[in-house]
Amino acid sequence: MATIVFATCREQPNLQASDKIVADVLQGHGVGVIAAPWNGPFDPFEEADLIVVRSTWDYAATPGAFLEWLVRLRACSKVFNDPALMMWNMSKRYMARLREGGVPIVPTRFCAPHPRDILAALDDLGLDEGIVKPVYGAGGSGLSIIRRDDADGLRRAVSMLNASAMVQPKLNEITSVGETSLIFIDGLFSHAVLKSPPEGRILCQEEHGGASNLVHLDAETIDMAQSVLDRLPELPLYVRVDAIVTPARFMIMEVEAIEPELFFNLAPEQAHVFAKVLLGRLS
User: Fold this and answer.
1) Which of 1, 29, 140, 239 is the most buried (most CB within 10 A)?
2) Would you say 16 and 33 are in contact if contact means Cβ atoms under 8 Å apart?
């Protein structure tokens, strides 16, 4: 029996609810599915017929170790997404490359994790208030709201950063509308989710009290998000494009090709689509 390994992490070693739906479909087709932490023993990955990197959500705490793991994965037979693409996607500096390629991104400045450099980034963006977060980060970890007149808050923010930082505006659309996630499977649009933060906050993830709901998008919005895939080094098997979507503007917040939450719990029929794609890669 063929075996697919879903890579997880030591902090949360079991399959997430969304991935469990996909695993159940695959097992119904006679394929074994196991979860294995990326930062655990490597044997399951060496023995797998196919590897799918899924909930490796603690990698940002040790990016060097994760990079070494990705290098080891390159020797395995079938890995998705491609390790080279995931290496490209690890540092949020890929956003600058997307901007250079004409992708409309949230205004962003990269800088050293030092108050002086962060204030210079605020100046460059013309801001008195903004957000700062690490270039290696996931799930809103290390994100802080900063003001140029709050020296203590700036020092606290710096203490939560790693080797490099990124500064962006605090967008009103996040609190008033939310963040839209568009999921693509094998290059085709699958479904979209609107993530809304709790009142008065900016983090939309469910672990921070946010709410996630399926949302219908018009063809133009889907096409704009799909065009972003053309700017990536290669086409991911699965990817989530996070954006600000309003009648007034469309801006990319993130392109997640490493361990995106795919929200199959909200669109279980699309789990069958993903499973079919994975079965095709097995043959």
Assistant:
1) 239
2) no
C-alpha radius of gyration, the chain, whole number: 19
- Pick from 131, 138, 148: which is nearest to 53 by CA? 138
pLDDT band at 50 (very low <50, low <70, confident <90, very high): very high
220 Cβ contact list (under 8 Å, min separation 6): none
Single-letter amino acid code for the residue at 238: Y
Token representation of residue 209: 């009290």
Domain range summary for the chain, segments of one domain joined by +: 3-80, 94-104+173-271, 109-170
**pTM greater than the 0.90 cutoff:** yes
Cα gap 156→172, rounded to integer Å: 23
Mean pLDDT (whole number) for 33-48: 97
Residue pointed to by tokens 């219908």: 216
Q: Are 197 and 176 in contact (CB under 8 A)?
A: no
User: What residue type is 260 in one-letter code?
Assistant: P
Task: Give pLDDT, residue 125.
Answer: 96
Task: Give the angle 101-102-104 at the CA atoms, nearest 5°.
Answer: 125
CATH topology of domain 94-104+173-271: D-amino Acid Aminotransferase; Chain A, domain 1 (3.30.470)
| In the predicted structure, residue 143 carries a pLDDT above the cut 90 | no
Question: What is 109-170's CATH superfamily?
Answer: ATP-grasp fold, A domain (3.30.1490.20)
pLDDT at 282 over 60: yes
